[in-house]
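Ticket #4471: structure output looks truncated?

Reporter: J.K.
Steps to reproduce: submitted the chain below (312 residues) through the standard prediction queue, then opened the result file.
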Amino acid sequence: MIVWIVFIAFVLIFLALDLGVFHKHEHVIKSKEAAIWTAIWVTVAFSFSGVIYWLFNSNIIANPTGLTPNNAVLKYITGYLIELSLSVDNVFVIAVIFGSFKIPPIYQHRVLFWGILGAIVFRALMIFFGVALITKFEWIIYIFGIFLLYTAFKMLKGDDDDFDPKNSFVFKQIKKIYPVTSTMHGHDFFVKRMGVNAATPLFVALIIIELTDILFALDSIPAILAITADPFIVFSSNILAILGLRSMYFLISRMLEKFRYINYSLVVILAFVGLKMLFSHYLELPEWVSLAVISIALVSGILASTLIKEKA
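Returned output as attached by the reporter:
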């Protein structure tokens, strides 16, 4: 438990520094700043693989799945890359939400900060129950596998391309439950008008981003559980990827048009992980194979997006 407490404390301390020191004064996040923070978070995440090796080599943390230190590192990196790659799709949706509610760039970091704080809590719960389900009911892995294949198929068809936050079920329910203003009031989530408390577009965007993240977690959590059922590896790889999502958003959202083939990479990754789950009791692939498939799929999508010119 000490390892878990230290890790969670590290995350909370950095989040406090993030909002209270690094971004104390609200400003528009430029591409250069976003690139620097993205590089920092990716470096922190990969450096953490050394901590994973040390923890498992020294038997400091519980090892319910009997992993060797080297296997633990490979599974951690693979899990991190899966979550990072699936986060790219999340970036597209966040951009649509911000655009729909006309959230000024200067306030977008604030919304993402509180959104990611909530995402950490929800994902921790989902990981806990997901690991418990797989540990107690082995057949649940087949359900996860089928779900990931279905998600890959939907992504390939592009069923979510017409997503409109203002016409969504969530937005309509928020308006029924609580008054919503149509104008911004600085960085405030709530405002009092004529003696009545009302939510601003900033708060509505936050709630919809939070709920869409939960939907994305329904894909990413089973995908990581296909790699390992070790709770600490699943949790740490997932959380470190989420922490880098804000800077990644400000970096990638300005280049959405250039990454038009990245969705195909995500389809390949989800389909591969889904099939791996379905055949997990009959075929055991070396961990480097999973890492190679995920890396090649991501690099191929990026290269295709960069090198293939869009038809006029």
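Triage note (M.O.): checked the attachment and the full token line is present. The beta strands are 190-193, 196-199.
Status: closed, working as intended.
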